[in-house]
Amino acid sequence: MPETLRVLAPTPRGSAARGRGSAPLPRHSPTPLSARPNVVLVGVALGAMAVLLLWWRGTPYVHGMGDWLTNAGRITGLLAGYAIGIVLLLMARIPAFERGVGSDRLARWHAIGGRYTVSLVVCHVMLIVWGYAVTAHTNPVHQTASLISSYPDMAMATVAAGLLVFVGAVSARAARRRLSYETWHYLHLYTYLAVSLSFSHQLATGAQFISDPLARLAWSSFYAVIGALLIWHRLLSPIRSALRHRMRVVGLTAEAPGVVSVYISGDHLDELEAQPGQFFRWRFLTREHWWAANPYSLSAPPTPALLRITVKALGDHSSDLAGVRVGTKVLAEGPYGGFTAARRKRRKVLLIAAGVGITPIRTLYETLPGGPGDITLLYRVSSPENVLFQDELEAISESRGHRLYFLSGPRGGPGDPLSAGRVAKAIPDVRHHDVYLCGPPAMTETTIRTLRRCGVPRRRIHHESFEL
Amino acid sequence: MRRAVLSTLGTITAIVVLLAFKSAPVRVARPPFSSPLNASEPPVSDPPATSPDVNSIAPSSAAASVASGEPTTQPVAPTTNGAATRTPATTPTKTPAQPKAPAQPKAPSRSAAPTTKAASGTFLGSSAQTRYGPVQIKITYAAGRITGVVAVQLPSGRSRDAEINNYAVPILESETLAAQSANINSVSGATYTSDGYVRSLQSALDAAHR
Fold this sequence. Notes:
- The complex is a heterodimer of chains A (468) and B (210).
- In chain A, 51% of the residues lie in helices and 14% in strands.
- Chain A contains 18 helices and 11 strands.
- In chain A, the strands form 2 sheets. A 6-stranded antiparallel β-sheet of chain A has the order 4-3-6-1-2-5. Chain A has a 5-stranded parallel β-sheet with strand order 9-8-7-10-11, sandwiched between helices.
- In chain A, helix 3 (37-58) packs antiparallel against helix 4 (65-90), helix 4 runs parallel beside helix 13 (213-245) and helix 8 runs antiparallel to helix 11 (190-205).
- Helix content of chain B is 48%, strand content 12%.
- Chain B has 8 helices and 4 strands.
- Chain B has helices at 2-29, 36-40, 52-57, 61-67, 76-84, 90-94, 159-179, 191-209, and strands at residues 121-124, 128-130, 133-142, 145-153.
- The longest helix of chain B has 28 residues, at 2-29.
- In chain B, 39% of the residues are buried.
- Chains A and B meet through helix 3, helix 4, helix 6, strand 1 and strand 2 of A and helix 1, helix 3, helix 4, helix 5 and helix 6 of B.
């Protein structure tokens, strides 16, 4: 789609004239293959219904307490098997989902789904053990032992359940805070082991599958498709892209204390079709850090020859970017993210950035079509020396006629420059704007509340935040 | 939190309703038998995992320090500055990317396709004023081709100018050699310098073709 690429061209002047005084919104060329969030949710819900139907079809009737418990255990087990597939699917980096739903929302859904899945697994185990024990008139401990020893593949399934609970526990808030992102991420990979260990007991002991080859086929294909998508998008596609683009660092500049811009060049970069506001997962091939891929937004509109990211020393990985030098080879997965012009519904746009959150906002500020006065940027900084891209922002503001405000001041209280009163005063018609918001989680949260108070509908506040 | 409660309740309700429907025919035969109380009890142990909303919002300690705006002093800057000066090394590695660049002509009027009429020799472009200072380009022309291009004047007023020049100029040079014209892409982050570069380059090309 060369259409989108032309919009990305680094010269903003051509696009400045467009959209001025035109009807509500400048039409953006639609991205092919992007799945709307509601469509995805409906799809997931329909799948869950199909799973329940599977149980309904394979169960003649339920009577007695043992039966109730056992069948509740079967339903939770089936739902858990389905949910874990969906949770993996959300992380399969499928471009349509990444664009349409947005990577940050996918990650949040993944976290919610993960917690739900682990809860279902725990319920499944307890209900089945209890139900079997009631039916067989034994105690649960004895029943557990016999389940593991005498049912096919149950030993593997037990290990799988243990792994899932373990992964769930390390992802819980309290533990998560004590682990580095990388440790947490790699512990997460045990989920794949858990899924493969648990798969065979589902078909070998699942009451709905033993006597129903069609159900077995459907269930296996569900897993096979997800497995194929994961392998394609998370393994083969990055390898192919690495061979095709051969990216490397061609320049490093310090933007502010602790903030570095990295310039990356490579072959055929135009084929990436990256849009302003999107990010890549970057892997710098130095001896220490080749194994960690971190998401950084493009901080300048991409060109066929050059990409730029700007990184603040956050987390284990980014603080070591200083070890990256000119010539370092880079692998990039992406582009990802739906924080682009495609989210825009209105002619007027308010961009709000805080700290290093300016990176995607800066590219949108340069490239969003709009006439003078249509686009406003509020950039919150902790202190003047931490302002990033001051010259670039001022130059864009000047050449395109966009409004630009640098804000500093205490958070909360009457002096807060991002209080509802001040925002409403600076931009009286703020409720008619689309708002793009990027900053630290706490700031994002309070700013969304502020905007809601100013009358901006929730659906027109677009934000991107990466914390789990 | 509300979401966790709702999804738990929803799941339990769905399971109980399904089971109740399935046991309906039997209940006629044996009345007090099915015990929904017992059936709905176990899932209460369901939420060991906690509130999704609160969890996803919890700031990491690093992010929190950004939010509160504490001055964080990272010793990153000096090393990177050092690395920036090494940029010219990129020029050779750049070239493979170039055949792509001229595929998108930006301004047709600028085109100066190499013609045989052009003289050979060195041509100095006019000094192009930019927001940050003048840019002036010198090209070497031989047998109808640009064989060399050198920036003789670049913005240098600010310390950042040197950094920008370090990465942008080698790219502009190799783009010029590949395109054999002033039809080159500007380097992002160096829009003004690129613009001046193109203007001076065009005037040098015009001089060569006179």
